[in-house]
Write a structure and sequence with these properties.
about 350 residues; mainly alpha; 13 helices; 2 strands
Length: about 350
C-alpha cells in the first residue's frame, strides 16, 4: 500500500511540475527557442523508442519514420476527418475547452499509438527470420512504402498533406506538458524495463539470441513486443507533431528522418537511454542554435555539425555513453567521492 501511495505521489508531482513549467516557458521563453525545445522533446521520444528495438533488444531497424508517419496521420485523421462526424452524437468531443481539447488529444494519441503498434507487429514478425542488414533493409523499405502510400492517398491530402489540424498540443499553454509527459513515459518505461527480469530477457536476446533461447527465453515474444512498444511510442510522437505544427505531409516522414533517428541511437550509445536523450537533443538543437546564436556561422552550421559528428564517432566509436546510464546511482557515487575528497586531502 505504501509503495502504491509513493507511486501516486510521484506521478502527481511530475504532472504538477510539467504543468507549471509548461505555463512559464510558454509565457516567457522566446518563440524560436520554444519551438526548438518542442522539437527536442519529440526527437527524444523517437530516439528512446527506437532504442527499445535497436539498443536494448539488438534488432536493427532503420524505418522508424514509417511508424512516426502512421501515428501522425491517424491522429490527424481523428481530429480533422472522423471527429466532426461524431460531435453531433457526442458533444463532449467538441474542441475549444480544456476538457474537450485534452480528451480529443488523448484519443488521437491512443489511436495513433495503436495504429503504429499494429504496424510494428506486422514488421516485427519477419524479425523472427531476418537479422542484421536484412532486417534493416526490410524496415527501411517499410518506411518508404508508408511514405509512397500516403503520397498517393487522396483521402489524407496526397502530396499536399493534411492541413488545418487543430492546435490541441499548444492549446491552454500545455505544449511542453504534453510533449515532455510522453518523454517521461517512454524514459520511465525504458529505465524500469532494464531493472526487471523481463528487461534482462531483452538484454539476453541482444547479447546472444541463440544462447537466450537455449536458456528458455521466448525470443519471439521479446522481439515482437519490442517492435510493438517502440513503434507505438513513435506513433504517439507523430500525433503530437501533427497537433503542434498543425500540418503534415509525406515529405516530413522521409528516409532522411529515419536515418537521423537511427544516428541519434548510435551516437548516444546503443542500449543507453541517457545517451539517446543527449544525442537526440544535440542533433536537434545544435544546427538551430548555431543559426540563432552565431549568425556569422549560419551558412556553415551543417558543416560544423557534420564535423562534430565525425569527431565524436572517431573518438567514441561505442557512442557517447556506450551501455552506461546516468541516474540516482551516479549522483550518489559522485556525492560519495566528493565527501571522501576532503578527508583524503586532510590525511
Amino acid at each position: 500500500m505504501r509503495w502504491l501511495a509513493g507511486k501516486v505521489v510521484s506521478a502527481l508531482a511530475v504532472l504538477a511540475t510539467l504543468s507549471v513549467a509548461s505555463t512559464l516557458l510558454t509565457r516567457y521563453m522566446d518563440t524560436y527557442y520554444f519551438v526548438v525545445l518542442i522539437q527536442c522533446g519529440i526527437a527524444i521520444t523517437l530516439a528512446v523508442s527506437l532504442n527499445l528495438i535497436n539498443g536494448i533488444t539488438g534488432q536493427f531497424s532503420i524505418g522508424h519514420a514509417g511508424f512516426y508517419a502512421i501515428g501522425a496521420y491517424v491522429g490527424a485523421a481523428w481530429t480533422v476527418l472522423w471527429r466532426p462526424a461524431l460531435v453531433g452524437l457526442f458533444p463532449v468531443l467538441e474542441i475549444g475547452t480544456l476538457s474537450g481539447d485534452a480528451l480529443n488529444l488523448c484519443l488521437a494519441v491512443v489511436l495513433g499509438a495503436v495504429a503504429a503498434g499494429i504496424a510494428g507487429f506486422v514488421v516485427g514478425l519477419p524479425s523472427l527470420r531476418l537479422r542484421g542488414d536484412y532486417l534493416a533493409i526490410l524496415t527501411l523499405g517499410f518506411g518508404e512504402v508508408i511514405r509512397v502510400v500516403l503520397l498517393n492517398l487522396d483521402s489524407v491530402g496526397g502530396a499536399r498533406g493534411l492541413s488545418g489540424i487543430p492546435t490541441l498540443v499548444s492549446a491552454h499553454e500545455l505544449a511542453v506538458f504534453w510533449v515532455f509527459l510522453l518523454v517521461v513515459a517512454v524514459v520511465a518505461l525504458s529505465r524500469n524495463l532494464m531493472r526487471t527480469v523481463r528487461g534482462l530477457t531483452w538484454l539476453a536476446v541482444r547479447e546472444d539470441e541463440i544462447a537466450a533461447e537455449a536458456m528458455g527465453v521466448g525470443t519471439t515474444s521479446v522481439k515482437v513486443t519490442a517492435f510493438i512498444i517502440g513503434s507505438g511510442f513513435a506513433g504517439a510522437a507523430g500525433v503530437l507533431y501533427a497537433h503542434y505544427f498543425t500540418g503534415i505531409s509525406p515529405d516530413v516522414f522521409g528516409m532522411d528522418v529515419s536515418i537521423i533517428i537511427t544516428t541519434m541511437v548510435v551516437l548516444g550509445g546503443s542500449g543507453s537511454v541517457t545517451g539517446s536523450i543527449l544525442a537526440a537533443s544535440l542533433l536537434t538543437a545544435t544546427p538551430e542554435l548555431l543559426r540563432g546564436l552565431v549568425p556569422m556561422l549560419k551558412d556553415y552550421r551543417l558543416v560544423i555539425f557534420s564535423t562534430m559528428l565525425v569527431v565524436v564517432m572517431l573518438t567514441r566509436p561505442q557512442g557517447l555513453f556506450g551501455h552506461g546510464e546516468i541516474g540516482y546511482a551516479t549522483a550518489r557515487g559522485l556525492l560519495r567521492r566528493l565527501r571522501r575528497a576532503p578527508s583524503s586531502a586532510g590525511g
